[in-house]
Amino acid sequence: MNPLDDPRLTAMGLLAEVHAGLIARMQPVLSASGLSDIDFETVLRLGRSPGQRLRMTDLAAQTGLSTSGVTRVVDRLERDGLVERVACSSDRRASYAALTDAGRERLEAVLPLHLRDIESCFTGLLSDDELTAFLATLRKIRDVVRPCATAGTATAGAATAGAAAAGAATARTGGGPHKQVPPQGPPR
Amino acid sequence: MNPLDDPRLTAMGLLAEVHAGLIARMQPVLSASGLSDIDFETVLRLGRSPGQRLRMTDLAAQTGLSTSGVTRVVDRLERDGLVERVACSSDRRASYAALTDAGRERLEAVLPLHLRDIESCFTGLLSDDELTAFLATLRKIRDVVRPCATAGTATAGAATAGAAAAGAATARTGGGPHKQVPPQGPPR
DNA sequence: TGCGGATATTTGCGTTAACAAAGGTCTACA
DNA sequence: TGTAGACCTTTGTTAACGCAAATATCCGCA
Question: In whole angstroms, what is the distance from residue A22 CA to residue B16 CA?
């Protein structure tokens, strides 16, 4: 038996294949709206955040991009008028990336089609129970590979300052010193 | 209720987060061995293929890279001595990327550590039943987003010529005209 | 045999992202 | 007050990838 045919490798490959396949399926709708994957994710995360804005660093933590990557994404989105930089009043080092009205409109325009895509290639294929189980398994893995993503739910201290959970959008609104969680590995 | 908090978006985000998190977790072991993600995937797929070789185009289909991307990956791997180009005797346009002994050794050297990583962050977290169910769900999605990946199992005709299934390594060994399946979307 | 369309690979060019370093700002502490 | 260290963002550099074009080869058909 070839050790290269280990079922664990197959499992990883299947997961990667599904992810890549879904991304590829979503792409036409997104790019028809003039947004790359990362553009869409950025705009979506801003839209989900309180005040439709996020500090550059928090955006980097949420998207998995480096901070310089975020700088350039926001450069592009700002050039297109979808996002604008807003100075942070409480910390002059920081700046917010804030969704503009045009950005919000663009986002709401793609959303129905995008949701239809997700529905038709992913969630809609599964029964309620199956989807629930699938998501539960994903969360179980997520909690191991990105432990900080679940922080911020119970502990109110500054120890939870790192990246915000993907779906929770619990970004801090500003203020105190940021005890940055040491990066748990090279980004991406 | 904010339409941006749709559970379908959360589901997609969770899947993406798990995938990215797993990749990040695997990276240290791989890069300690001098291989990038894509290097490892390339070498692994070659190792799994009959004769430890694959035509450039087939490699592109399996990895999701463009053909030019494969050219460059193989350039790098060849420079490092892990892979070599071998002329295809039956079609002088084509060339194989073939794993060298050094490539095979490198691959077998990382494999135990890599499998340990997968085990500790993914498969090992789940009961047998849960893993089975998870993989079944993934396959269900895969069959929709990448229909050609399951071809080649029953139908013996030339219609199955496109990409080989991720785990099956059923690459054609040469010969007939290649009815390339139209790309089912922009790669990656 | 000879021609035309299709296929396999490589190369030029533009875009994007990560890493490293720089510049400005904040907090803590003496 | 003043200094040290940490932090936020941006910019320069380098690497990787996709697209389009170029080149070589193959296959079908007259």
Answer: 10
